[in-house]
Design goal:
189 residues, mainly alpha, two-stranded antiparallel sheet, 8 helices, 2 strands, 61% helix, 3% strand, PRA1 family protein, Prenylated_rab_accept_PRA1, transmembrane
């Protein structure tokens, strides 16, 4: 007998979802992602003299392993250094934080389509709108240099940590191993 496989594709629900529902579900997704991927801070800082060492000939593999393992922590560090670079400009900090929150809620952690006034807003429109809003906010606030400095410092801190943190003994969970391509997912026969 031949088995008939029906191809399925992911489709959006046809039930209109209010913007407040989209935001609450996005907040839930953000919280779940952080709780799943954020490593304990003492583990990031290391305990003992063996946690940090000069990289041997495999510094790229060490940096890659640490980047995968601590990616959520590195994102928090970069966001914090960016926010600290704007501490002297409270209105700019508030506006840039609001735009950052919009990116997280409306683009990165949104599952359902955004429906405004009965019309489904395309992902491309959301992306372009958020990009325009980001550029406009940085331009109006005049904090490009400060923000670039904060981002640069955060990237340097994370890069130095990724190179110097001994990656021996750091293990990723099964979901991370599958998503990074380290192992293949089990298939049913």
């Amino acid at each position: 007998m031949q088995s008939h496989h029906q191809s399925t594709s992911a489709t959006y629900t046809t039930i209109p979802i209010s913007p407040s529902d989209v935001i609450s579900r996005s907040l839930h997704n953000l919280s779940a992602t952080l709780s799943r991927h954020l490593r304990p801070w003492p583990q990031l800082l290391g305990s003992g003299s063996q946690s940090f060492s000069r990289p041997s000939n495999s510094f790229l593999s060490r940096a890659s392993a640490n980047s995968r393992y601590f990616r959520a922590n590195y994102a928090v560090v970069i966001a914090a250094t960016s926010a600290l670079s704007l501490i002297g400009f409270p209105l700019s900090l508030l506006l840039c934080s609001a735009v950052f929150a919009l990116w997280l809620l409306l683009y990165f952690f949104r599952e359902d389509p955004l429906v405004l006034w009965g019309h489904c807003v395309s992902d491309r429109f959301v992306l372009l709108s958020l990009a325009f809003l980001s550029v406009l906010t940085v331009w109006v606030c005049g904090v490009f240099q400060n923000l670039a400095l904060g981002l640069g410092i955060g990237v340097l801190i994370c890069g130095a940590h990724a190179l110097l943190r001994n990656s021996d003994g750091l293990f990723i969970d099964e979901d991370d191993a599958v998503s990074t391509g380290l192992v293949r997912p089990a298939t049913s026969a």
